[in-house]
Amino acid sequence: MQFKSRDDIKKALTYSDVLEIESLALSMLLDSKGMNALLYNDAFSKICFTCSIVSEFLKDGKVVYIDLDTIFTSYVRNGIFDADSGALEIFLPSENEFESMLSDICSHLDANAGLVVVDSLNSFYHLYDKIKIGSLNRLLSAYISLLLNHTRRIGCKLLVTSMIRHKKAGEWILGPSSKRLIEAKSSVIFNVELVRNGLVVSMLKHQPLKLYSKKLVIAKEQIPIRV
Questions:
Q1: How many helices (H) and strands (E) does the chain have?
Q2: Distance between CA atoms of 158 and 114, rounded to whole angstroms?
Q3: Cα–Cα distance between 160 and 82 in angstroms, integer?
Q4: Predicted TM-score (pTM) of this structure
Q5: Fold of 32-190
Q6: What's the CA gap between 42 and 50, in Å, rounded?
Q7: Strand spans (E) along the chain
Q8: Smallest Cα–Cα separation from 163: which of 30, 38, 36, 47?
Q9: pLDDT-derived band at 173, boundaries 50, 70, 90
Q10: pLDDT tens profile 81-105
């Protein structure tokens, strides 16, 4: 189903808890004033979502992708995801160099950038050696806050991804570090799962639209990689 605006999607979800959408609608649902979080427990489901949303943003502008787990980069380099390399900037942080890379990104972010992706928060901890987890949690929170301030200022949307540890009594359980950060900073939270007919995107929280526990379904044909 095609939608022209975020309000159209909200109206449709008023009458149904499950809605079939085109991948274009995902870009409409991201918030430019708060952080958008994608939770996943299957890496392929996550990459289907990120490729879909990056593909939509590349039609109108630039995408900055901070690829901490390198999965997205391998899809691009091997031609599995066909992206306009001129409009897509991929950053691959190496050990103890995240701060300088983030400074470089923030210094040249401008209105041409429609989306910044940090994928994934879990892999951030692998970049640092001999630093206590509490210190890393505070460091990550400070970095994401800095990035969010920059994206908010220029009207760009920030998407972060985080792997789920397990599911308990119908509730998705995050690692303690990611949980605090995502709950504090996110205005939109999605969970994603690949099924036979396509991609099911569960809208766990959408603060701007005041929507919770809604499901969006993207047909397999809409996903820009083979599934």
A1: 8, 11
A2: 9
A3: 22
A4: 0.94
A5: Rossmann fold (3.40.50)
A6: 13
A7: 18-21, 35-40, 62-67, 88-91, 113-119, 157-163, 166-168, 171-173, 186-195, 198-206, 214-219
A8: 38
A9: low
A10: 998 668 999 999 988 889 999 999 9
Q: Any residues with CB less than 8 A from the CB of 38 and at least 6 apart, and which?
A: 46, 49, 50, 159, 160, 161, 162, 190, 191, 192
- Choose the weakest-confidence range: 3-7, 86-90, 102-106, 170-174: 170-174
Q: How many CB atoms lie within 10 A of CB 134?
A: 9
- β-strand pairing of 35-40 with 198-206: unpaired
For tokens 């609608």, what's the residue?
25
What's the CA gap between 18 and 205, in Å, rounded?
15
Q: What residues form DSSP beta bridges with 63?
A: 88, 115
Q: Which residue is it, tokens 């603060």?
A: 207
**74 confidence band (pLDDT: 50, 70, 90):** very high
Supply φ then ψ for residue 101, to 5 degrees.
Answer: -65, -40
